[in-house]
DNA sequence: CACCTCAAAATTGTAGGATGATTGGTTCGT
DNA sequence: ACGAACCAATCATCCTACAATTTTGAGGTG
């Protein structure tokens, strides 16, 4: 006979779960303002205290944000993302870049092995977008296309955990990354390395793709240290 | 003049911060039972609701665990660790191993570049521990020494973010890893690769260390797929 | 003494109400 | 039209009370 363990789930955790589902499913999209506490109390059929404890848990988790007198809003849809973001604030840019390097290299290797035909198509598409941005000399568009391209590469690894971590890291880094990419984008080097990376993945050349990532990150780190020297 | 309106920190968050500090500092070590709510109310000078919201936030964050009628206990000392652990439950072992591969390879490369003399000493010490465990044919001790060795390698990278991520991943994986290592530890291959890895780091041979990690992970993945076939 | 039973104490869980503080919009006077 | 004063909505904090659960210990029984 199996003893019923702590199967008792507190009301608060039940409410938290339901709210998390609503947020992750997009029913409560990022930016949405939640109904006031009174309505939520009725909706979940719990007391004020219970509801507030649930909301507070999500606030501390980084998914919600409350403002006295104004209301409660959704400010993120991922617990992991919020946790990583908080941790990254305590790290310097170089540390973060090194971890990104690790993830991106592995993503490139896996992508080279596992990329599907759709992945290849997506890669070509994003490369075109980069090229067009360069020809139009539109830095803003290039930065966006660049970030997108790297997301596509990560996606081609078909490792959901890796994709998640990578996405959250670049999310948290987006401002710094944008600046860095903007600094480097003026050179042809950047785009040449992109080409080598994408070609490697398409040709299923694992080592070639990994080597391209190494070059890419070396270039990024160099630019970073140069821009730091200027200060 | 910069207006800092958002400087208003809620009482709950203040209490949460203090408790987090107590936990991270070790004043409330993992496993410790917290004082009852009444005492904490007086200690932090807040009402029961406020205190409970703070506790609930930490419970949901994975740092605390409450049991009605029994009390509240510390069950983890890191928010990031708890978040990663939860995410890992949704991933399969292969995905997790691949990410660990990425982190460990980067750690080895950085360690080869940055290892200090103390690091070298620590590495030699842990290698000895592994050897002794093998000679004593003590599997339990070998597994522990193996995990310790890899932690030392990560530490030698001198990248705190990387160290954190790696530690939390292996923490969350500990049971699976223990089993895997136990399966592989009977062969000499495992120890030979360890030797190559440590030698590479000590000799500051970046590529050699990275190659050793590749071999190590390949061996681990092979063992994993074999053990999965048996089911 | 050893062991079981059960009641009481300790502790967290849930409910409901009251008041203060902040925000955003509205109204009103100029 | 513009700014100041007001007002309503909303969250923040505190309080009390009771329920549910676990631990503890007293008392009985063999």
Please give a structural write-up.
2 copies of one chain form a homodimer. In chain A, a hairpin with a 3-residue loop joins β1 and β2. By secondary structure, chain A is mostly helical. Chain A folds into 2 domains: 67 residues, Orthogonal Bundle (Arc Repressor Mutant, subunit A); 149 residues, GntR ligand-binding domain-like (Four Helix Bundle (Hemerythrin (Met), subunit A)). In chain A, α4 packs across α8, α5 packs across α7 and α6 packs antiparallel against α9. Chains A and B meet through α1, α3, α4, α5 and α8 of A and α1, α3, α4, α5 and α8 of B. Chain A binds a DNA duplex (30 and 30 nucleotides) through α3.
Please list the strands of the largest sheet of chain A in the order they lie side by side.
1-2
By secondary-structure content and strand pairing, the structural class of chain A works out as mainly alpha
Instruction: Categorize the overall geometry of chain A.
Output: elongated
| The CATH fourth-level homologous superfamily of the largest domain in chain A | GntR ligand-binding domain-like
The total beta strand count of chain A reads 2
Mind telling me which CATH architecture of the largest domain in chain A this is?
Up-down Bundle
Question: In CATH terms, what is the fold-level topology of the largest domain in chain A?
Answer: Four Helix Bundle (Hemerythrin (Met), subunit A)
Keywords (chains A, B): DNA-binding, Transcription, Transcription regulation
InterPro entries (chains A, B): GntR_C, TF_FadR/GntR_C, Tscrpt_reg_HTH_GntR, WH-like_DNA-bd_sf, WH_DNA-bd_sf
Domain HTH gntR-type (chains A, B): 9-77
Organism (chains A, B): Bacillus aerolatus
